[in-house]
Amino acid sequence: MPTASYNKFQDYAEHVNKAVHNWSSHTFKAVLCNTAPVATNSVLADLTQISNGGGYTGGAGGGVTLDSVTLTETSGTAKLTIADEVITASGGSIGPFRYVAIYNDTATGDPLVGFYDYGSSITLADGESFTLDFDATNGVWTFA
Fold first, then answer.
1. Quick one: pLDDT band at residue 49, thresholds 50, 70, 90?
2. How far apart are CA 44 and CA 27, in angstroms?
3. What is the pTM of this model?
């Protein structure tokens, strides 16, 4: 499985300070892209997602719902962790995709959080799986 680097969307810093994201009650999702997101993208509609198929559905409200999203704080440092998610192609292929972007499906306009760059395009053949491997130890991000 390729490793990925995390990149924050610039508006996320403002969104946090304006209480746009509630990690305890909002629904966050991951969508697949093969066109590179840019740091200045702000909302889901700014991204070019891959086509639907193989059991994957993108678009507004689409993507993979992220389970077990947890924000904790210890000694003044907040840490976001997300349980790993498995995407399995069913009835056809998924991709190619290189980027996985996280967005808030609850907040108005589907604001973006960040994205992972896997370094090269990935295509899942029918029956193949891909794990979105979120760092359970260090978290997706920390804020001190």
1. very high
2. 14
3. 0.92
